[in-house]
Structures are given as C-alpha cells and as structure tokens.
Specification:
By secondary structure, the protein is of the alpha/beta class. It folds into 2 domains: 160 residues, Rossmann fold (3-Layer(aba) Sandwich); 66 residues, DNA polymerase, domain 1 (Orthogonal Bundle), CATH 1.10.150. The protein is 45% helix and 15% strand. The protein has 9 helices and 8 strands. The strands form 2 sheets. Strands 5-4-1-6-7-8 form a 6-stranded parallel sheet, sandwiched between helices. Strands 2-3 form a two-stranded antiparallel sheet. The radius of gyration is 18 Å and the shape is elongated.
C-alpha cells in the first residue's frame, strides 16, 4: 500500500484561532458575557463546538446544560461564514506539503471539525488539492481520540498504519495515533492544554521546516522495527 502522512487541522496545519475567537466572542457578546482574549480561547479549542461553548460560558459565569445545544448551533452559524477570513496556514506548511508530495507521500486530513467547513477552509486557503482524503468528525460514527477515526482516514487514503505518520497538536491527536499504531509528530505551536513536550509524541517540531526530515526519520525507524520483529519470528 501507499505511504501516507495524516494531519490534524486546527492548530496543526492552520492557525484558525483568530476566526474561532472572533466568532466565539460574538456569541458571548450576544449573551451579555465578557469577551475572551484569543489566548484564553486557545486552550478551550480542540474538542468540538459544544465543548468550546461549555468551557467559554463556564469561564464567563456559567451556563445551563439545556442551553448548550442551541448555543453551539449559534456559534457554528456565526463561525462558518467567516472561518477562513483570518485563518492562515502555519509558516512552512505549503513548502512541506510540496516536498512530501514530491517524495511520494499521500496526504490526508483527520479532524474533529465537521467535513463541510473543513473542505471550505482548505479550498479558501489553496490547500485542498494536496489531500486525497479529508475525514471530518461527521464522516464516521467515532472521532479522535478514537483510533478508528485515524484508521478510517488511512483507509480512505489507500494506506495502512504501518506505512503512515500522523501530525497533530493535542492529546486527542497523539492518543488516537498511538492507539492506531501510527507514529506521531507533535507541533509545539498548536492548541493544547498540555505542554507539547509532555504529549507523548514520537517527535516534536517547532516549525514545518522540520517536518519532512521528521517524517522520513519515523518512517525509517518503523521499517527497522518491522524488520527486527520479522527476524525474531
């Protein structure tokens, strides 16, 4: 099967915090709540709209459980039309994707964000053409940290876990990849409530300039491990 690199979206490939924070502050404003600085919103992102809304409203005075669904729907309605206005790929992303594709890697996206907005953002940023598979959180009945989300993405990309590397920024990403048997690279600049060095990734990079070398290194290490296991049989 082909070899593949699977990416998380928010905080990994793209800096989407400016649009997320803007939309969420609009929601807070509508409900008479104080505005939150982007860095406070940053640690609330990554587990879906409902969790972001719950965390944000708890931080600004609390919220009744029976209001969460309606507030989450309203947040999505505000966010989706402006989701690529301030959002940008992280520095070095395009060059890294070009290099990986030229080296024969298939590229895919595995994100808990719904598929529609994900594809719209990728298209708006000129990134959609790089990815042969894009599986949002609504594409399958399970999502990260469930490893089946990663495995379904690899299947859609025509690759196997033994020939893949995952790139993410959060515990959901690292835990899902490891449970799927996929070596994982963490970026140090993403959105996580845990220090990046403590996420348990196989490699940590500080810039996308480091990605290609890290991918190749992990791929070679996985091949050596496989050969060693075969030799022991």
């Amino acid at each position: 099967m082909a070899k593949a690199v699977v990416f998380d979206l928010d905080g990994t490939l793209i800096d989407s915090l400016p649009d997320i924070a803007f939309a969420f502050n609009q929601l807070l404003l509508e409900n008479g709540r104080r505005q939150l600085p982007p860095e406070e919103v940053r640690v609330m992102v990554g587990d879906g709209a409902a969790t972001l809304v719950r965390r944000g409203f708890e931080a600004t005075g609390g919220v009744e459980a029976d209001r969460l669904a309606a507030l989450s729907e309203r947040f999505v309605a505000i966010y989706e039309p402006i989701s690529a206005e301030r959002t940008r790929p992280w520095p070095g992303v395009v060059a890294a994707l070009d290099a990986l594709r030229a080296a024969g890697w298939r590229l895919a996206v595995c994100t808990n964000k719904p598929g529609g907005p994900t594809r719209e953002i990728l298209t708006s940023l000129g990134l959609a053409g790089y990815f042969g598979a894009v599986l949002g959180g609504d594409a399958v009945p399970f999502r990260k940290p469930d490893p089946r989300h990663v495995l379904a993405t690899l299947e859609a990309a025509g690759a196997a876990a033994a020939d893949a590397v995952f790139v993410g920024d959060s515990p959901n990403d690292i835990n899902a990849a490891k449970a799927a048997g996929v070596p994982v690279i963490a970026v140090s600049f993403g959105y996580t409530r845990i220090a990046p060095a403590e996420l348990g990734a196989d490699r940590l990079i500080d810039h996308f300039d480091e990605l290609v070398a890290a991918v190749e290194e992990l791929s070679e290490a996985a091949k050596r491990d496989c050969q060693a296991q075969t030799a022991r049989l």
